[in-house]
Every structure is written in C-alpha cells, then in structure tokens.
Amino acid sequence: MTNFNLIPDRRKNPHGTKWTYYEKDILPMWVADMDFPAPKPILTALHKRLEHGVLGYEIPGKAIQETVAARMDYLYKWKVSPESVSVAPGIVSGFTVAARALHNAKRGIAIQTPVYNEFHEVKNNVDIPQIDIPLVKSVKKNILHYEIDWDLFEKRVKKAGIFLLCNPHNPLGIIFSRSELIRMAEICIKHKVIIVSDEIHSELLLDDHKFTPMAKISREIEKHVVTLIAPSKTFNVPGLFCGFAVIPNKELREPFEKEMQRMRLHVASMGLHAGMVAYSGKCDNWLTDLKHYLTDNRDFLVDFVTRNMPNVRTTIPAATYLGWLDFTQTEIDGSPFEFFKDKAKVALSEGKIFGKEGAGHARINFGTSRAILKEGLERMGEALGKR
Ligand SMILES: Cc1ncc(COP(=O)(O)O)c(C=O)c1O
Fold first, then answer.
1. What angle do CA 267, 228, 87 make, to 5 degrees?
2. What are the start-end ranges of the H helices in 322-369?
C-alpha cells in the first residue's frame, strides 16, 4: 500500500510551480496538481528511458491509440476504434483545438459557470462569444449544492456552436448523472451544438462514485461529442503534457486533427511513455489507494470546515481533489483569496477566475498529505477566528 502521508519536500525542486510561485512562508493549496510522487511503474519506465540516453523524436503510433481504446473498454465498456484516438499536448490545447476546428463563427461557446479558468480563455483564442450558463447554488446546513437550471440551459446553449462540458466538474466536484447527461445531450443535438467533454478528472472518483463518459451513453450521442481525457491528473504527471481526444465521428475528428497539424502541436516522448504506462493498468492499485486517501482528505476538509469555520460553506466533492468554499456569509471583506494569503499564509485559488459567480469563494486543493491539509485548514480557521 502506498503511504500518501509521506511526501517529498517539493521546495527542493526549484522548478515546480505550486511550491515556488509564492513566498516561502505561504502554504500552497492552489494549482491543480498533487503533492504525491507519480506511481512507481511510471517512474521506473521513465528512468529506463533516461538510462538509454537517447531522447529522439517520437511520433505517436498505433500502440498508444490501442492502449487508450483498451482503457475506455476496460473502464466503461465503451468500444472505440484505435483510429478515433488522437494525441494532444494536454487537455487545454485539446479543447482549444476542438473549438478552433469546430466552432460556428456566428455562435458562441457555452460553459457552466463557475468553471475551470482556462474554459474562459477559449473565446479569446477562437474569437467567439462566451455564453455563461451558471449552475444554480443552494445551501443546506452549510453544504453547497449546484444544479442545472434546465430552462436556462436550453435558452443559452442553443446560441452556442460548442458546449464545453466539464465532467467531473472543476471546481465543484460534481459528477453529472446519466439522466443529466442525456438531457444535456438531447438539448445540444436538437439545437445542433457540438459537445466537447473535458473528462480529465474522470478517474479521480471519491467514495464509490461511478463515471460514465458522455459519449458512451449512446451511439447517437457519441456522434456529437469530442471526449478529452488524460492520465495527468489521475497519476499526477501534469508536467509531462500528454492528453487524448476520443472522437469516433470522422466528421468531427478530421477537422480536429487538421487543426492540430496546422498548429504544429506535438507531445514530448516522456509524456507519451508515461501515458502508455498509466493506461496499461500497472498503476491501478496505486490509484485505488489514492482514491481512498483523497476520500478521507475530502471528509477531513468537510468536517473541519463545518465544525470550525462558522458561516463558511463547502461542497462535498464526488470527484477530484478540489474543494470549493463559500465565504460570502463571513465577515471577510473583498477577496477570500487575498484574505487567506495575507492573514493565514495559505494560497487558495481565487474564486473569481472561475467566473463572476466565484466572487466571495475560493478553491482549495486537498491533493496533499493529511498533515499539510490540517495545517492549511488550521491556519485558515485561526485567521477567520481573529476577525
Ligand atoms: C477541467 C480541467 N481541464 C484541463 C486541465 C488541464 O489540462 P492540461 O494540463 O492537460 O492542459 C485541468 C487542470 O486543472 C482541469 O481541471
């Protein structure tokens, strides 16, 4: 069993962004990578490559496509042909390329806010309007719930050419249910909206939650979907920049691949190699242990906030290692991000970067050791108590 309580001192790596971006006295609980080393099989495979010494060009071949297709079959019984798998240098480039290739110049890109900050950049890159479809917040006993307003969804999404779905959702930790996915897909198909489904967090499931890729629901829905997946979040190798687009419909895949070519985007060989090992199944025991640890961290977070931070509200994420905290009922004036950075020496992610609904909120990264999580929360609790 992997002991996730033992983590390396990340400040010893002067190149890692999370632990070097802020001053040394600040505990970083922001950017979405974890403080755990990648699983042994990946590290061993990368060491072997390095020992060989020659790091030449590597064009992604059939083997990686077959590995990704096999993983989809293994995880979801989703049968896709290896040809429907394209390689991308990550998911942000994947959805940017998808939007560039498949947008409709007169229509926009729809996103469910508050949502991952990079979703908000696509409009600038592609030069199309962004259509926000806010998820509707409710609160019960200081626990946050977010739901789709279906009338609003249809009214807004039909103005879009592309719906960029985040499932599981960053920063809210939602896994959309099968019936919600069907309803979203039916509305999109009715209004000729292409769905780009960012499923990067789909293997980071907490408790016993299950996940269904949007495109797996039916062969009809599959025709309208670009699915984006990556081993980077799950196996904590985001700095290797390797992701995949699964696009069974040739009419969507060909323009996607053409745009990828046009942009001259390539994946480094170490990323490809890590991706192969990650999806081979050799790291799945590590992943099982990780999910238990993250579930316990999530419980620790929710318990700490509800017991020790009066008027602070929290989600109970079903997936990801990202929590979402609502400070709008506290006495914090202005940005909670600034407040905690100054007064608690804890760097969260600023809520507003996820959309205007994020004002007064912040995202917390609990992909770390229990000791660091506890220290961060205690510092925050103390700063709140002093107000
Ligand atoms: C929903 C989502 N998509 C994409 C990414 C980043 O993907 P990549 O590093 O592969 O570009 C993140 C990282 O936090 C994310 O949360």
1. 25
2. 336-343
Percent of the chain predicted with pLDDT > 70: 100
Secondary structure letter of residue 240 according to DSSP: G
Q: How far is the CA of 200 from the centre of ligand 1 (A)?
A: 6
For residue 241, the tally of other CB atoms under 10 A from its CB is 21
Domain CATH number, residue 250:
3.40.640.10
Q: What is the pLDDT of residues 63-113, one digit of tens each?
A: 999 999 999 999 999 999 999 999 999 999 999 999 999 998 899 999 999
Same domain, 198 and 83: yes
| Helix, strand, or coil (residue 122) | helix
Distance (Å) from CA 120 to ligand 1 centroid? 13
- In this structure, the answer to whether residues 296 and 197 fall within a common structural domain is no
| Ligand 1 lined by 202 (C-beta under 6 Å) | no
User: Which atom of ligand 1 sits closest to the CA of residue 238?
Assistant: 9
Strands 130-132 vs 322-326: parallel, antiparallel or unpaired: unpaired
Last residue of a domain, one of 278, 308, 340: 278
Same domain, yes or no, for 184 and 204?
yes
**Whether residue 120 sits in one domain with residue 72:** yes
Phi and psi angles of residue 284, each rounded to the nearest 5 degrees, phi first: -70, -30
| Ligand 1 atom index nearest CA of 31 | 14
- If phi over 0 gives left and psi between -120 and 50 gives alpha, with beta otherwise, what is residue 258? alpha
89 lines ligand 1 (CB under 6 A): no
According to DSSP, residue 313 is labeled E
* Under 8 Å between Cβ of 63 and 225: no
pLDDT tens for each residue of 288-323? 999 999 999 999 999 999 999 999 999 999 999 999
Q: Helix 150-157 and helix 178-190: axis angle, to 10°?
A: 30
Ligand 1, atom 16, lies closest to the CA of: 170
